[in-house]
Amino acid sequence: MGNLYCDPLMTSTGHKITARQRWTPTPVQLQILERLFEQGNGTPSKQKIKEITTELSQHGQISETNVYNWFQNRRARSKRKQQNAACNHAESEVETEVDSPKDKKTRPEETFQSQQHSAQRTEDLCFQSPEISSDLHFLDPHATAVDKMFPSHSGLRSSRHLSEMSFYDEVLANSRHELMTGKMEAGNYSLFQEAEDYGMTG
Amino acid sequence: MGNLYCDPLMTSTGHKITARQRWTPTPVQLQILERLFEQGNGTPSKQKIKEITTELSQHGQISETNVYNWFQNRRARSKRKQQNAACNHAESEVETEVDSPKDKKTRPEETFQSQQHSAQRTEDLCFQSPEISSDLHFLDPHATAVDKMFPSHSGLRSSRHLSEMSFYDEVLANSRHELMTGKMEAGNYSLFQEAEDYGMTG
DNA sequence: GCAAATTAATGATTTATTCAAG
DNA sequence: CTTGAATAAATCATTAATTTGC
Fold first, then answer.
1. What is the tens place of the pLDDT at every residue in A74-104?
2. Residues 94-133 (B) with a CB less than 8 A from some CB of A
3. At residue B47, does pLDDT exceed 60?
4. Predicted local confidence at residue A57, as pLDDT
5. Distant-in-sequence, close-in-space partners of A112: CB < 8 Å, separation ≥ 6
6. Which domain holds residue A178?
7. Which is higher by pLDDT, A86 or B9?
8. Does the residue B22 lie in any domain?
């Protein structure tokens, strides 16, 4: 239940903010992300990711990488779940092909949308601006900044194959938690390539 | 599988903005990269990639992404070659699944040099090879500018106060890649996450 | 009612596959 | 054919849920 973010790793005496290594979406953030995902636009473009991140930043710690990863994972998971769930609807095919890619440890992800809307983070709530609903701005017909980025969500697209809708996907990456501990050995890079490169330093 | 692989370079009108020609390493760049690769330190850390890129930029067009990709491809390619060769040379009679296309479990990486990015935990121990970052000497014999930028990496990782370090101004974050005004929407994300993010509730 | 131990979810990274430019 | 670039699949590692014993 109440999963308080009571991390003992808080700033002790000289310890720093390096508390958790992996981002955990706040309920609000999650809600927004879910909404966006449902709009069915696949992985947002970088531009959108950035803006989404900016928006979500108002509700807690988050980064573009987090957003990107979230969409990636979300999509992959959805797809797999679909497969696992076996298409027992319209298909009269055998179900012996969808599952068994390899059973090592992959559990049948029955991952349901656990939308724990309970306010867990006290901090979060504290920082909640008087306009809590602001997070939904872009989701609503009011159209905020984020809304502009997702114009194609007409809502009438009740597609069933929301897994194959990606336009692209980044391989972004970034150092992982190691950095926080000072390691930073992970080597991952984004592909800035686009604007940054051609024509710049060259 | 069924990815459409939409060409992200075209605009809606089908008009290309900037032909995306793929980067081609110049001989000098290639030489340096090869040398670095041979130093055998796996994929360089983000920091190093940055510096390498900076250095290589002086010899032609290049980006961090290019460098990163290059290392990635290089490693994969090498591995595959080795596997292939081994398969041919080794037993040509008993084919007991010498190498399935999906055998990561077997840790094929061990055949290579250290994999500095896979096993390190947040513990501040220095059990890992302390000389991991010796890859800086890649250009040793000539010692060009690059050499100068990689001197201070040795043993730094051994520090156990890693968690105390707070001045990792790694926050770089591709500042402007964002202006892909006409480029493509294929975005990529940077590595902000590390420093920039986790600071949350603190 | 808590807290250590376990399990389930899931964020983050790596690897393999594929596509296409030269 | 070589290989840089892009995507998806698989894997890893950590956090949250849940269970269990006190």
1. 999 988 887 766 655 555 554 444 443 333 3
2. 102, 105, 116-117, 120, 122, 124, 132
3. yes
4. 94
5. none
6. 171-202
7. A86
8. no
Provide the percentage of residues in chain A whose pLDDT is more than 70: 31
Asked if residue A201 is part of any domain, the answer here is: yes
Q: Which residues lie closer than 8 Å to A146 by C-beta, 6 or more apart? A: A36, A48, A51, A52, A55, A137, A138, A139
- B156 close to A140: Cβ distance less than 8 angstroms: no
Query: Based on the domain organization, do A143 and A175 belong to the same domain?
Result: no
- Cα angle value B187/B192/B193 (rounded, 5°): 110
Contact A26, A60 (CB under 8 A): yes
Q: Which residue has its C-alpha nearest to nucleotide C9's C1'?
A: A111
B165 touches chain A (CB under 8 A): yes
**Beta pairing partners, B10:** B16
* Same-domain status, A73 and A136: yes
Is the CA virtual torsion A139, A144, A146, A150 positive or negative?
positive
How many domains does chain A fold into? 2
